[in-house]
Amino acid sequence: MSKGKNARKRQNAQQRAQQKFAQSNSSLGESIDTEYKGSIPKEPNQNSNTEREVPVESGKLVYSIRKFVGRSSFTDWCLTFFTLAISVIAYYQLTVMKNDERAWIRVGSPIENHPDQFTVEPDKPIIFPTTISNIGKTAARNVHGKVFIDLLQSGQEVSLGCVDSDTCPATELTTGIIFPTDFTTGAVILVTPQRTIRNATQAEAEAWKAGNNYIAVYGIVTYDDVFGVSHWTKFCLWKGGNSKSTYMAQNCAKYSEVDNQ
Fold first, then answer.
1. Percentage, residues of the chain above pLDDT 70
2. Of all helices (H) and strands (E), which one includes residue 12?
């Protein structure tokens, strides 16, 4: 009888131990699950011996990155780098293609090839012919030019500030579209500050022949290409009456420029 009681006591003790072990595991699982879902474990602070709380969202991001890096293989990283390289190359090729295929506007004058056809005569207006041509591969749209003309002393530089100002009298040259290899012609006339045509005086005509003055024509032409990108061309042309004279037109010669978009 004593042996039977002892056996039952041992059996009851074993059952109680198993129940405590199961309860302990269940509590541990709930604790881990709560910790994972509700917050992120504390991370050690490198600057002190204490621990700091990590924000939940920040911690999740770090956890996700660590998880991704841990699972990413060498092949994954190679594919990522290869995709990025292809994107950069494609963008560069598209830019080069657009620059090669876009419209390019050039401003010139027939006087460049026939300098003897232009002169300054007394009591007559000074009219300087211009040519706006498209030397690109596609059409130029919404072409608009703002052009200025000055009669200057040979030792006087061109005042290019009028291009960025609305106070100087300008000649407006506008055309809807210029196709490749095509051009449009116009003329710029010297005017007074009141924007009326000014005739050359006798003294100005004599100074022209002596090489003591010269004509400068400058301005800007804006336009759009077939890709919808806006462009501009700045230009400055000049002409003196005596090839043996010296003219202070260096800033005019350096002014011509185009955008590179």
1. 67
2. helix 2-38
